[in-house]
Design a protein that fits this description.
Blueprint (H helix, E strand, L loop, with lengths): L13 E11 L2 E10 L12 H5 L12
Antiparallel strand pairs: 1-2
Length: 65
């Protein structure tokens, strides 16, 4: 059994985030703007002692050595 993050697809470079509202006729509609995705692409769990010894992470492409 492995974790869901094992061999996942790369993260997107940008995500859509709400930046207020605008009126669209009679309704209020969220204004969505692109924002950079700031999380690291590589696995941060392997930097800890537990992550370094976790057998369920063996062979993962995102694991740091």
């Amino acid at each position: 059994m492995s974790y869901a993050c094992k061999d996942r697809a790369p993260f997107m470079r940008t995500i859509a985030a709400q930046d207020g509202w605008f009126m669209d006729g009679y309704t209020r509609t969220p204004r969505m703007v692109p924002m950079p995705f700031r999380m690291a692409q590589t696995c941060q769990y392997t930097h800890s002692d537990l992550g370094g010894a976790d057998k369920r992470c063996a062979g993962c492409t995102w694991r740091k050595s």
